[in-house]
Amino acid sequence: MILVTGGAGYIGSHTCLELLEAGHEVLVLDNLSNASPEGLRRVERLTGKKVELVEGDLRDGAALERLFGSRRIEAVLHFAGLKSVGESVEQPLRYYDNNVAGTVKLLEAMGRHGVKRLVFSSSATVYGDPSRVPVTEDMPLSAANPYGRTKLIIEDMCREVFRADPSWRIALLRYFNPVGAHASGEIGEDPQGVPNNLMPFALQVAVGRRPVLNVFGGDWPTADGTGVRDYIHVVDLAKGHVAALAKLDALGGCVPLNLGTGRGVSVLELVAGLSRAVGRPVPHQVVARRAGDVASVFADPTRAAQLLGWRAELGLDAMCADSWRWQSQNPNGYAR
Fold it and tell me: Can you list the alpha helix ranges (DSSP code H) found in 222-315?
């Protein structure tokens, strides 16, 4: 049985689907603070297989103890965490409490119960404002915002846990900007409140829930002045987690891996792609830069290809088309 923390969320639910398709039993722990159980119900319908959902918080040590004490857990895929750069700048302590303290509790419970196989949902934010692109796993690590710093701290904890006990097997998956949805349109990203990430906000503009998309900064040192990121289809990302799980023992140690396409896409390029998928322009306006952002970050994914046999396969048009299918079929998200 695979424990997926934060498995009811956007990336977690898509990964649960891929795990089930690969033949794994899946147990989800999620506090549902930014997720809906409806997503997992749809995963069950799509796969014809059962997902066990336990509602709980990683910071609840007693709940973790009950969970690990009552199940035969083979490995953990750890997604649970707050994830907005802008919000982390405004509420740093909330991010350290949720992301870092929660992971401490999780690692303690795993160690007590001899579950020493972990795939951690890290982030390209651990590269800070990189001196060059594409970024490789051996580049210096830093963080330009509290969200990124929580990911870097958790990576450091994982490395130190492994140094203290080399029987651990840990994959640190540094991924870039997940977008897209399952091709069925049944599961996708459904943020609660005002979306903090580009694609879900743009989709809500396209579907008429919001008037205009703000593009943060038109004066970055990039081709069109807008920020450049490595957007990766969430299905490719989910398959990367399944590949990392399969290769954990062969990887050995605590291994960082970039999951990205290797191609940088600007904000305006993404908006143009979404406009093509929608069939009309998505209203947008350029505004001032946002605190904590950087100009350009995209991956060199060579190492993941070599060690996992994984490559991103879906391009920008598929990302936008699948995103729009999800949003147009579910204009109010899982609430319909």
Answer: 234-251, 267-278, 302-308
74: Cβ contacts below 8 Å, ≥ 6 apart: 1, 2, 115, 117
CA distance 266 to 269: 5
194 vs 297: CA distance, rounded Å? 24
The candidate with the shortest Cα–Cα distance to 240, out of 134, 162, 313, is 313
CA distance 256 to 299: 13
Q: Indicate the pTM of the whole model.
A: 0.95
| Separation of alpha carbons 305 and 311, rounded Å | 6
Q: Estimate the share of the chain in helix, then strand, then coil, as percent rounded to the nearest 5.
A: 45, 20, 40
Taking only the tens place, the pLDDT of each residue in 147-162 is 999 999 999 999 999 9
Cβ-based burial of 282 (10 A; exposed 0-12, middle 13-18, buried ≥19) = buried
Terminal Cα-to-Cα distance of the chain (whole angstroms)? 32
pLDDT tens by residue, 220-241: 999 999 999 999 999 999 999 9
Short-list 267, 179, 186, 183, CA closest to 223? 267
The CATH number for 2-179+232-260+301-310, chosen from 3.30.300.30, 3.40.50.720, 3.30.565.10, 3.40.109.10, is 3.40.50.720
**Residues with catalytic function:** 147
- Judged on CB neighbours under 10 Å (0-12, 13-18, 19+), 332 is exposed
Mean pLDDT score, 289-313: 93
CA 88/CA 108 separation, integer angstroms: 25
Rounded CA separation 232/241 (Å)? 13
All structural domains of the chain with their residue ranges = 2-179+232-260+301-310
**With contact defined as beta carbons under 8 Å apart, do 282 and 205 qualify?**
yes
